[in-house]
Each structure stands twice: as structure tokens, then as C-alpha cells.
Design brief:
single chain; about 130 residues; mainly beta; Lipocalin; 4-stranded antiparallel sheet; 1 helix; 10 strands
């Protein structure tokens, strides 16, 4: 726990994260400059980014969640899934374009698990006309 807190403090001084960090197993995952960064939280090793991968979509990240050893990103109306099986070499495994969504009246974009291996995603509301 203390090591994780130290990492977050260190990361805040060395790199600006574009989204909130996410812990997946013993990995800390955060995004900077259109890149997924993976940091192993292993007490035997120095804390450092062990793997990086560019985010495929040029759209802003609106929400994120984890599923086992994968990270799922909601990028406006795209969903991208990256495998973290090998933390030194994250890999894209799937990308989906969401169908045109109805305008949300309020709320925040999110990815919610609704059943085993099933998620409900909602993009952010469309800008007013």
C-alpha cells in the first residue's frame, strides 16, 4: 500500500496522467500523451514503466475499466481493449465502433459490468447545438 502511494506521488511529479490510474492485479496502468503506460507494483523491483503502447484512436479517453488482465477504454464512440498479459509488451486485442447513440441528458461516460464478460458502455453527452 505504501509503495503504491509512493508511486502515485512520484508519478504526479514526473508525468501528467491524462486519466485516473487504474490498478489491475499488481499493475498500475495510466495514460499520458496518447499512450497506455504499465508499471509493475512488485516490492522486489524498482518502480518504473515496464511497458507502453500507443492508443490507436485519436479520440479522448472518457472512461476506463479492467477485466481480468485487460484494460477497456471508452474513447467517445470507440471501445478499445488492450491485453496486459505481458506487462512489458501490452497489445491491442480488439476495437469496436459504437453505433450512433442517443443524446444523453446528463451523467458521466462510463463502462459498467452487467454480467460475466458483458459490459454496458455509454459515451459522453453530445455538445449542445
Amino acid at each position: 500500500m505504501l509503495r503504491g502511494a509512493a508511486l502515485l506521488l512520484l508519478a504526479s511529479f514526473t508525468a501528467r496522467a491524462d486519466t485516473q490510474p487504474l490498478v489491475i492485479g499488481n499493475l498500475l496502468v495510466y495514460h499520458t500523451a496518447r499512450t497506455v503506460n504499465v508499471v509493475p507494483l512488485d516490492d522486489r523491483a524498482a518502480l518504473k514503466v515496464s511497458g507502453r503502447i500507443p492508443i490507436t484512436s485519436g479520440k479522448a479517453i472518457h472512461a476506463q475499466t479492467s477485466f481480468h488482465d485487460h484494460i477497456i477504454l471508452l474513447l467517445w464512440d470507440d471501445v478499445e481493449i488492450y491485453s496486459l498479459v505481458d506487462p512489458t509488451s501490452p497489445k491491442p486485442v480488439a476495437a469496436f465502433q459504437l453505433r450512433t447513440q442517443t443524446t444523453l441528458k446528463s451523467g458521466h461516460p462510463r463502462i459498467e459490468p452487467i454480467a460475466e464478460r458483458k459490459f454496458l458502455s455509454s459515451p459522453p453527452p453530445a455538445p449542445p447545438n
